């Protein structure tokens, strides 16, 4: 990763693929287990909407709280901490973020971070796990329903992941991932409303587990799809990622995507100011508590210089 204070060279962060779907002609191998499971999950989420009026207010608040924890496990954890090393976290915070990441159930931290590094290094090529040039559906969810392109596997093996291998929290979560997912993604969200304030297990399961999980998944996927297709590019008009307010809301601050791909080392993934970025607020709060340190930032002169050189002229 580039150090703060230097403008990352576009050649190392973004590589343009051919026009149109870069994997055209590549035969897709459908993973039917994933198709069925994703279909059942989303059917269950739609059904859960019927239960919303019947649930206790505390249950709805709990489901939203679980959504925020889930999102932080991805945004502050797998993404900004472990993928980009944009700040440092003390052991208690890393343990919390690992548990939150298990609640997110989006592959373990090691695999998530490795694939995300491939996404940045080989963006919009066949080595990008969710290459947006293969269409909206593929970049949103389709990439999880088929076998990985061989380039994703080949190039992924060449990435430097020594820091992930050396992190005992990452390795512990990877070793016990299935058990931690069952507990954090399904058991804990379901049992808390039932045990503490007497909500039915049925409502607890479908609202705090299934609906919350489906909404959180799609919030993350919006970054891969919508934020690579719709929006402006004030920092670098030559790359696909864009600024998108909708994604910012759904992914608690990850919608400033043109900025993020231009300055991937920046812990805030956006310019500081009044931007809606709950993940940045969380990291800043952890710094106040002494649990996070060494936040990396792009400097104002660096940002302005990059805007003038490669931006599309929008604010």
Automatic annotation (TrEMBL):
Record GO biological process: unsaturated fatty acid biosynthetic process
Q: Which residues are listed as membrane-spanning?
A: 30-50, 62-82, 179-196, 202-223
Cofactors demanded by this protein: Fe(2+)
Localization (cell): Membrane
Q: Which UniProt keywords apply?
A: Fatty acid biosynthesis, Fatty acid metabolism, Iron, Lipid biosynthesis, Lipid metabolism, Membrane, Metal-binding, Oxidoreductase, Transmembrane, Transmembrane helix
The annotated region (Disordered) lies at 1-24
Q: Which residues form the Fatty acid desaturase domain?
A: 61-264
Q: How does it sit in the membrane?
A: Multi-pass membrane protein
The UniProt entry, under Pfam families, shows: FA_desaturase
The main place the protein resides is membrane
* GO annotations of cellular component type: endoplasmic reticulum membrane
Q: Which PROSITE patterns match?
A: FATTY_ACID_DESATUR_1
Q: Name one GO molecular function term.
A: stearoyl-CoA 9-desaturase activity
Q: What is known of its domains?
A: The histidine box domains are involved in binding the catalytic metal ions.
Give the family from UniProt. Belongs to the fatty acid desaturase type 1 family.
What PANTHER family does this protein map onto? ACYL-COA DESATURASE (PTHR11351), STEAROYL-COA DESATURASE 5 (PTHR11351:SF100)
The molecule here is called Stearoyl-CoA desaturase 5
């Amino acid at each position: 990763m580039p150090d703060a204070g230097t403008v990352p060279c576009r050649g190392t962060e973004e590589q343009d693929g051919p026009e149109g779907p870069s994997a055209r002609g590549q035969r897709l191998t459908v993973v039917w287990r994933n198709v069925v499971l994703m279909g059942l999950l989303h059917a269950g989420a739609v059904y859960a909407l019927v239960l919303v009026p019947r649930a206790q207010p505390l249950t709805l608040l709990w489901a939203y709280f679980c959504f925020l924890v889930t999102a932080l496990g991805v945004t502050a954890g797998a993404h900004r901490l472990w993928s980009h090393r944009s700040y440092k976290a003390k052991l208690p915070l890393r343990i919390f973020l690992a548990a939150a990441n298990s609640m997110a159930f989006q592959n373990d931290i090691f695999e998530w971070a490795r694939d995300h590094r491939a996404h940045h290094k080989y963006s919009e090529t066949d080595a990008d796990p969710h290459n947006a040039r293969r269409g909206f559906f593929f970049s949103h969810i389709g990439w999880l329903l088929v076998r990985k392109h061989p380039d994703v596997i080949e190039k992924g093996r060449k990435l430097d992941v020594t820091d992930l291998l050396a992190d005992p929290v990452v390795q512990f979560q990877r070793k016990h991932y299935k058990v931690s997912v069952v507990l954090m993604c399904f058991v804990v969200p379901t049992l808390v409303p039932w045990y503490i304030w007497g909500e039915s297990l049925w409502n607890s399961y479908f609202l705090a587990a299934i609906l919350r999980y489906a909404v959180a998944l799609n919030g993350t996927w919006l970054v891969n799809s919508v934020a690579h297709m719709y929006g402006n590019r004030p920092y670098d008009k030559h790359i696909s990622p864009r600024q998108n307010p909708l994604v910012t809301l759904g992914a608690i601050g990850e919608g400033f995507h043109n900025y993020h791909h231009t300055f991937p080392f920046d812990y805030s993934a956006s310019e500081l100011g009044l931007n809606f970025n709950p993940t940045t607020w969380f990291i800043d709060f952890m710094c106040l508590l002494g649990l996070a340190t060494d936040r990396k930032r792009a400097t104002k002169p660096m940002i302005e210089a990059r805007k003038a050189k490669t931006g599309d002229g929008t604010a």
